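Hey, weird one. I pasted the Protein kinase domain-containing protein sequence into the form twice and got a warning about non-standard characters only the second time. First submission, copied straight from the form history:
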Amino acid sequence: MKPLADSDPRQVGPYPLLAELGHGGMGRVYLGVSPDGRLVAVKLIREALRDDERHRGRFRREVATARRVPGLYTAPVIAADLDAPTPWLASAFIAGPSLQQVIENEADGEPLPEEAALRLADGLVTALAEIHQVGLVHRDLKPENILLTRGPTDLDILLSDQGGVFLNDAGVRVIDFGISLATDDALGSTRMTQTGWLVGSPAYMSPEQIEGDTITPASDIFSLGAVLVMACTGSSPFAGPSVQRVLHNVVYTEADLSGLPPRLGAIAAACLAKDPAQRPDLNQLRELIGRVSASARPWPHRVHRLTGEQRVELAGMLRPMGSGTTTGNPQEPNGINKRSWNSRTTDRTPFTADALLPAKFVNDLDIEYVRVAAGPRPCEEAGPDDLVSVLTACGCTEAMTGVYLEQGGPNPPVLVSVAVFPMPDYATAKSVYQLLIGEARWRMTIWSAQVGDDNTPRPGTFDSGFRWAHDAYRHRYVFSARAIRTDLLKDGWLKPWLRAAAKRAATSCGPQNHRSS
């Protein structure tokens, strides 16, 4: 996303614009907000082309095409004005990085692992089925037009307090129908621009698309195969030093699939058959892919991180810094302004155990608890996948965890597990807290006093035993505390002891523990 330039519009139709999402030869796409608070992607024809009837006609076809597709696996059209001085199209904004962004991201190194690549293939088959069933061929299936999304739709709620809501689910979305083609169009229609250039992306075009032959759904199957190879290897199967060489390779050269695992290699080979009649249809392709486990994490960590970064960027656009805070200028005794804790951009609290967790605390029953283990742990360990996806999508990749043990009692001690989740700002912390106080609270990890080689807690195996949960949020932090007796006693009479321990632990954690020098 790019900030709006002076030359960019500030509003299109009923949609105030927030940023530029991208641009191409025909137009620009902006991030906007609908009157009901939903985030939208607004596409505008370039100023230089708006009076060109040929381009206006192409834009009309794009809108009509997009409206034919149901939208469950694409970006559904919300509104359009084709007769405006500058025609525009508004579709739902889908949160998540493009496959191209994921491939290009170098921080995590390797391309998609096999399970994620199979999930990608399965998602693309489902999306193409939705497109093909209304008589369309996409014709431009490429990594830039594929979004990898992460569930759950609770993210709609998380942005609602900040004036914007976006769609998000765990799966694949195919976007941009700018050059799609109805399967009943005449041979050669709209396959080339008036200047003679092929319409499409050379490395992902099918041989028949390049040669101007009849385009059928099998063309998208070929593109899927090329996308799959790129996702798995980081390289196009038809790469060359020039566009002409790439086009030649697509038509005449067999793809090198030696870098793919056998299962993925077989799928790609079937898709990349030069003869459209030899390629599998979508049903056959789904059989080749086989069953993709619904319980597997949808995507590798870098997808989570990219989504989280996007979420933080959106939060900064949608809500002024520090909103939701009290007025005045409250100070801690050490001179720290409490309001600075409301936003990541102003909070100077170090992400350390001593800064966020007390060394000990005493609860309302006058029982002392001492910290016996502490340290940062990945958010992926904090709970089940659907909960983790919300935390990481909100920009939280690590939690500060701690384990406390009851001191001096005659019985097996009560263990209190705490986790502090730093969020971008106060509003996000509040929204995540509202999620945690529901059913999710009973699925949070209880950390063990047993530490790993890095001396930080590890998830415990507390599958039984009476437990008490207390969650809270203050400033930009969410606090999660769980109390359980170490012998896993299930008796209900433990309730007041566990409740007092969990409550005081949650209220004792936070940036107030940090004393700057």
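That's the output from the first submission. The warning seems to come from a hidden character in my clipboard, not from the data itself. Residues 336-513 form one domain.
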